[in-house]
Specification:
Blueprint (H helix, E strand, L loop, with lengths): L5 E10 L3 H15 L3 E14 L2 E14 L2
Antiparallel strand pairs: 1-3, 2-3
Amino acid sequence: MPHHVYKKIEVVGSSPDSLQEAIERGGAKAADSVHNIHWFELVETRDNVEDGKIANWQATLKIGFALD
């Protein structure tokens, strides 16, 4: 197994539908411009509430990728 050096970035994905979708959106958007993604950490979840109901899920991800 080759040796890697990693860098981490932090992104926040959001979705009005679910936490899972917020996570997937954050990871997918990061993959549009970051290459060699190896893992992510879910570090925080939030949601805003309107009229007593969850209106928008937010997921903060730390994304690790190997440097070239």
